[in-house]
Amino acid sequence: MAKASGEVQPLLDHSPSASTEGVEEGDVLTASNDRSVELDTVPETATIGRNLSWISAYMLTVSRIVGSGIFATPGNIYKAVGSVGLTLTVWVVGVAVAACGLAVSLELGCMLPRSGGVKVYLEFMYQRPRFLASTMVAIQAVVLGFTASNCIVFGEYMLVALNKDVTAFAQRTLAVGLLTAITIVHGCFLKTGIWVQNALAWVKIGLMVFMVILGLVALFLPQTVGGGAGTLHLTRPFEGSNWELVTLSTATFKAMYSFAGYDNVNNVLNEVKEPVRTLKTMAPTALLTVAIFYLMLNLAYFTVVPLEEINRSGELIAALFFQRIFGASVGSTILSVLVAISAAGNVMVVTFALARVNQEVARQGFLPFAKYLSSSSPFNAPLGGLIVHYIPSLLVIVLPPQQDVYNFILDVEGYAGQFFVMAWLHSFRRKAERVMWASGMLHMPLLVCGVIYWYIWTVLIPRWRGYRLEEVSDILQDGTSVTRLVKVEKE
Q1: Residue range 373-395: mean pLDDT, rounded
Q2: Residues 6+ apart with CB under 8 A from 220
Q3: How far apart are the first and last CA of the chain?
């Protein structure tokens, strides 16, 4: 087994066994015929190689966190809490909660430095009941592993930027076109895809710097802003604050959700150079970068846009920001381009990461046609995982009625991991009932059906027909190690 110089040894110690004998500390596994879960503590190199440097991993994280929400969420939070001081406080709390989540993500990623993220962690921690964790992750990957909301956002704002009518057909056509183009690029041109998503991330950072500079100009040269700049009210930052618990909880949830994606690189660690060392420094740097930009953008918004206008206007706060600086026509076009670029960059990095998760699920033998979906042939890229991601994403974009498509997608995408948070909010506020109901109606039956399917497939039928399921390791022609589930007759 080849030794990678400078590679950090796994942090989680495990007892030697038949499956781990001969694995020295610091070894990096390539293709191996042993797929034991204990080996998850040792870094594994993907057959396509380690193509993600520190910078690429950093961009993968930043672009995942920064979506289109930063153009609307600050205004929504301000309207809810009622003051600049409390708005900024909510954002700080959101950063703190995200940092706590990042600490857990870092510990798991450094102990189990393999691609797959949550899949790897659940399988390692919940090895009993056997196959349950793998089955649930596989169901989630196939049924809910899609990227659609930002595709819809891209379609809408590109039409606005091009001064075209926003029709259902045109919006969905652009959304499907974006999804298809990204799938082809990532599936057939691996390094080109990485370069493009890095470039889009740099554009996002540049745009945020540009907006912050505009805010500073408005602060020191208020006459440059049409209609005059807003007022920060820093002498009385908490005047007008709404201290209701439910309001603060909802606002904090929105701020927390704005930092979702800080663990994106955990899904692709097999392709990261020096994964443990990179993860420990890159992820906190990325979260800190986004946190600083978010706080500065909030200040820029409040500097340029009068608070009264934020309260009475139904437009995005970023729309008001650009309209006051560049005028209504130019400002609307600039905003539309920014939102479209941000949405496209987010779709690229989400697709890149989820394709690796799907490939890992297939490697474990829990998807149909696993041999083909696990392989990185013929383009030296996880095309099979991308196809598993593409199909449900396409269906979610095309099938729902137009008037319900965006809200439906948000309910499915946005609340999968926060269902219990919304259930808690429901006990205080009936307004949360619609969101919690939509989320619960989909996710709870899915979880129950997943458990029933696991029991029938791995327990009931084998017991009835007198066999047991065993895992057999194999290596594909492209060098990818996989697991096949075989039936072994009971003696």
Answers
A1: 92
A2: none
A3: 37
